[in-house]
Amino acid sequence: MSYEVHHLNEIWDAAKNEALEIFKNDHIQIGILLLTPNTRLPETGFSVHENFHEFAYIIDGEVIFGTPKKTTYLKAGDFMYNRPGTPHYTENALDVSAKILWFLVPDRV
Questions:
Q1: With contact defined as beta carbons under 8 Å apart, do 68 and 44 qualify?
Q2: Structural domain total, the chain
Q3: Is residue 105 pLDDT above 80, yes or no?
Q4: What does the mean pLDDT of the chain come to?
Q5: How is 32-77 classified by DSSP, letter by letter?
Q6: Most CB within 10 Å of its CB: which of 16, 66, 79, 83?
Q7: Of 88, 87, 89, 92, the residue nearest 75 (C-alpha)
Q8: Do residues 14 and 34 touch, judged by C-beta distance below 8 A?
Q9: For residue 1, is pLDDT > 50?
């Protein structure tokens, strides 16, 4: 295993069931999430980003993205958008981990 692959695996391990921010400036936050099998984030209730547009790209696996009004099933290659202030959760109901790349962009209203 090369150093780069080993280091990348360590980064994904740090993002296990926790959104790991890997870049941030005044215009965007970028992070990753490794959602293990049969895990929901948050465990109960919803997350809310009051002043941010949220985007996510499913790199690997499948997840359920839920809001109080809608449930969406996403698979590798899918891209998702969530409006500022919309309560939501992400769930991995499968037996394999899912890798997610996420972005938060400030609402410039």
A1: no
A2: 1
A3: yes
A4: 94
A5: EEEE-TTEEESSSS-B--TTEEEEEEEEESEEEEE-SS-EEEEETT
A6: 66
A7: 92
A8: no
A9: no
**pTM, entire model:** 0.91
Q: Which domain holds residue 67?
A: 3-106
Cα–Cα dist 40/57, whole Å: 17
What band does 16 get if pLDDT is binned at 50, 70 and 90?
A: very high
Structure tokens at 107: 């609402």
The pLDDT value given to residue 49? 95
CATH number of the domain residue 85 falls in: 2.60.120.10
Q: pLDDT > 90: what percent of the chain? A: 89
Q: For tokens 């209203």, name the residue.
A: 109
Q: For residue 97, which amino acid is it?
A: S
- Tell me which residue has tokens 């090369």: 2
Return d(Cα 92, Cα 79) in angstroms, integer.
16
Q: Is the dihedral of CA 78, 1, 34, 36 positive or negative?
A: positive
pLDDT digits (tens, 9 = 90+) for 31-54: 999 999 999 999 999 999 999 999
